[in-house]
Specification:
mainly alpha; Fumarase C, Chain B, domain 1; Fumarase C, Chain A, domain 2; Ribonucleotide Reductase Protein R1, domain 1; two-stranded antiparallel sheet; two-stranded parallel sheet; 62% helix; 5% strand
Length: 459
């Protein structure tokens, strides 16, 4: 008989049991469920709501059950529906009426909200550590490449020269923001809902603050209806995870491009590449492609849960059972992708000569040539037009701006002088951009030190 079966005269259909059950996926919250129940039982005994000896027996037995689950000695039952009722059924089988008293003053509605918050908090901490490791790898590679010149792009067209360090540190900034989003998601998850009951609290004199302290939460929820209906904390986490995947996917797209014969900016380790079943020459960036592909899966988890929640009236509705597979799926995907990406990046070889050669093409120094004229007193719009004409002239002659003779330059503008040639070297183009946030090595080194300090402070 179901633990809730007193009002029913017929058993549920076997197909209903299967359709209704969530034990196949929510069993991963067994530890959180037991820890929450131990805290609840301890509080019930302290408050005199149940006999102290029953509270002690419940706590002792729950700890034993936890140990047996982790040793693989317990099989969960689909007939018991979910992790909460599975644990309670096992408990009651072992200690009888004392076990039946555990659920006093709570509902599965606030129980599952508690379990999921506890589970998410644990996972956020682990994912933050993975993001931090990636930021460290980016910072380490950047430190070795502050003078490695490469082309920067807009519209995937060569635009201006930058350095590999500056390029990688752009992603470090993205992942630092991801770390902050995870921290904010943790803050909003770190609120204890137990005591909300089914939706309207309870008449028992629960000590919610005591349970909050036992379980390591920062605060208790202030509205019992919101306490059981809220899944914003899941949306916050899924949003943060989706953004992480978006950043990984953008980076993977560049790695995929860089590893082509057309770019040849990077050589991935054999450990993070695959071959072709028919073409013996192929070395495919499949790990990067898979991460790019799995991004859609995490987006789907976010939009799926948003869609599930959008039409739900207060308070708890069974639709909310769909939250866990979305959250678990996104967490699993991100935790799979982050270490693979970090290791793929840390073992890659950056082909510096090819990057430098790439920066020399596409007139990436044209803006600096225009700035040269502007600094000589030519209005920038006129400088822009002059350089446009020079670029067109170079295209027709199949040469670069730095290849033009002084005679050719002065034929278009008499302002040009011999110092022009130094002004348009790639080194000058990069080194001259020394304002805060620029690619000049002097600024890059400062950012690297800032990142090192950030890594130290976020332990």
């Amino acid at each position: 008989m179901k633990l809730w079966g007193g009002r029913f005269t017929k058993s549920t259909d076997s197909a209903t049991d299967h359709f209704h059950s969530s034990i196949s996926f929510d069993q991963r919250m067994y530890k959180e469920d037991i820890e929450g129940s131990i805290a609840h039982a301890k509080m019930l005994g302290k408050q005199g709501i149940i006999p102290v000896e029953d509270s002690i027996a419940i706590q002792k037995t729950l700890k034993e059950i936890l140990g047996e689950i982790e040793e693989g000695k317990i099989e969960f039952s689909e007939a018991a529906e979910d992790i909460h009722m599975n644990i309670e059924t096992i408990l009651t089988e072992r200690i009888g009426d004392a076990g039946k008293r555990l659920h006093t003053g709570r509902s599965r509605n606030d129980q599952v909200a508690l379990d999921l918050r506890m589970y998410n908090k644990k996972e956020i901490i682990e994912i933050k550590a993975m993001v931090k490791e990636l930021i460290k790898v980016l910072t380490d590679i950047a430190e070795k490449n502050t003078f490695t010149i490469m082309p920067g792009y807009t519209h995937l067209q060569k635009a201006q020269p930058v350095t590999l360090a500056h390029h990688l540190l752009a992603y470090a900034e993205m992942f630092k923001r991801d770390y902050e989003r995870l921290s904010e998601a943790y803050r909003r998850t770190d609120v204890m809902p137990l005591g909300s009951g089914a939706l309207a609290g309870t008449t028992y004199p629960l000590d919610r603050e005591y349970v909050c302290e036992l379980l390591g939460f920062s605060a208790v929820t202030l509205n019992s209806m919101d306490g059981v209906a809220d899944r914003d904390f899941c949306i916050d986490l899924l949003t943060a995870l989706s953004t992480i995947m978006m950043h990984l996917s953008r980076f993977c797209e560049e790695i995929i491009l860089w590893s082509t014969n057309e770019f040849k900016f990077i050589e991935l380790s054999d450990a993070y590449s695959t071959g072709s079943s028919i073409m013996p020459q192929k070395k495919n960036p499949d790990m990067a492609e898979l991460i790019r592909g799995k991004t859609g899966r995490v987006y789907g988890n976010l939009f799926g849960l948003l869609t599930t929640l959008k039409g739900l009236p207060l308070t708890y509705n069974k639709d909310m059972q769909e939250d866990k597979e979305a959250v678990f799926g996104a967490i699993d995907t991100v935790k799979m992708c982050l270490p693979v990406f970090t290791n793929m990046l840390s073992t890659a070889t950056f082909l510096k000569d090819n990057m430098l050669h790439g920066a020399k093409g596409g007139f990436s120094n044209a803006t600096d040539a225009a700035d040269y004229l502007t600094k000589k007193g030519v209005p920038f719009r006129d400088s822009h037009e002059i350089l446009g004409r020079l670029v067109l002239y170079c295209i027709e002659k199949n040469c670069m701006l730095e290849d033009l003779t002084m005679t050719e330059l002065k034929a278009i503008s008499p302002v040009f002088g011999e110092d022009y040639y130094e002004a348009v070297t790639l080194e000058s183009c990069v080194n001259g951009r020394s304002l805060i946030g620029g690619p000049a090595p002097t600024q890059t080194v400062k950012v690297i030190e800032i990142n090192k300090k950030w890594l130290e402070e976020n332990k």
